[in-house]
Amino acid sequence: MKDLLDRASAAYYEGNPILSDEEFDSLAEQFSYNKVGHSISGGISHLYQMYSLQKVFNLEEVTADLEKDYIATPKLDGAAVSLVYVNGKLEMALTRGDGKKGQDIIDKMSFLVPTEILLTKTVQITGEVICPSSVANARNVAAGSLNLKDLEEFKARPVKFVAYDIQGTDCKTWTEAMATLKVQKFNVVLEFDASEYPTDGVVYRVNDYELFHKMGYTAHHPRGAFALKEQKQGVVTTLLDVVWQVGKSGVVSPVAILEPIKIGEATISRATLHNIEYIRELNLQIGCQVEVIRSGEIIPRVVRRVDDLEKNNS
User: Fold this and answer.
1) Rounded to the nearest 5 degrees, what angle is found at the Cα of 290, between the Cα atoms of 286 and 295?
2) By CB neighbour count within 10 A (0-12 exposed, 13-18 middle, 19+ buried), where does 223 fall?
3) Where are the domains of the chain?
């Protein structure tokens, strides 16, 4: 399963996901998978490491005083990038990669962000390249745009950059940092209207930078910030059969035939299984119990096998 999740993680950051967010989160939780990003061959080091955010599915798990110490903003669902300005000039722009190294995209980011700002210190600005929800597969389009070789094609894409942090300044609070970036003509997540863009949760972060840095980091996450995500509740049913179908692209893929269940307002009797390796990794067998979700409230997907004992105890 680790190999599958490694490939899914790499595909996600390249803008060609092979698993939905719900499927990836479910499998990652089951198999205690916490790797973030993917290794970049010959990549360039970020000035500051780009950490991921710890996922939280219930605010009751959080013991901190959210109203006093934290600021909440939408978790934009696009492609994270870093920008480095030296003496006010844009000198480097990188994809997130594995958080330590990324690929050079300064040729593209020069069309989305100011190439000169009034800050003279060397700073790293991090944020998200996003695409409107009205565009099909908006998150994939945003990430895929950064891989384009044709700059004219990139300029035609409806993408924009929204900043969510800056490092290397004397700002005392995160809200002060956002105000500083706004003055420099950046879109900032604190004031950005995300209603027409894809989001996948809410980010809570400590406002005071001194407290934020005092709280420190794990190997993967800052302790002063986390992402609240909605946990999709699946429905358990019986896998009756597996059939193979040919998609529009000519790819043959397996489909689960299920004992009909209701998810929301829909009756579900079929669900995607991706490929034979996915079936093997989940140890699916005809007649076994499986958990099904509706990814994006549209596509039914099998996310795991449910043992009979677990089902009886639920």
Assistant:
1) 125
2) middle
3) 44-228, 232-313
Predicted local confidence at residue 223, as pLDDT: 94
Give the Cα-Cα-Cα angle 271, 274, 278 (nearest 5 degrees): 110
Question: 119 with 169: CB under 8 angstroms?
Answer: yes
At 11 the pLDDT is: 60
What is the helix (H) or strand (E) element at residue 38, kind and residue range?
Answer: none
What lies within 8 Å, CB to CB, of 53 at 6+ separation is 75, 203, 221, 222, 225, 226, 227
pLDDT along the chain (314 residues), means of 10: 61 55 57 54 86 86 86 95 96 93 95 96 96 89 92 96 96 97 97 94 95 92 90 85 83 90 86 86 92 75 76 51
Buried b / exposed e across 61-85, counting CB within 10 Å, b at 16+?
eeeeeeeebbbebbbbbbbbbbbbb
By the 8 A CB rule, do 232 and 293 touch?
A: yes
CATH fold, domain 44-228, is D-amino Acid Aminotransferase; Chain A, domain 1 (3.30.470)
Considering only the top CATH level, what class is 232-313? mainly beta
Residue with tokens 């800050």: 119
3-state helix, strand, coil in the chain (%, to 5): 25, 35, 40
Q: Which residue has the tokens 């005083």?
A: 65
Biggest CA–CA distance in the chain, Å, is 65
**Which residues participate in catalysis according to the annotation?**
75
> Which residues are CB-neighbours of 228 under 8 A, at least 6 positions away?
56, 57, 59, 75, 201, 202, 203, 204
Distance between CA 283 and CA 22 in Å, rounded?
19
Q: What is the pTM of this model?
A: 0.69
Q: Which residues contact 216 (CB under 8 A, 6 or more apart)?
A: 222, 223
207 within 8 A of 175, measured Cβ to Cβ: yes
Distance CA(37)–CA(238), nearest Å, equals: 34
Nearest-angstrom CA–CA distance, 156 and 132: 13
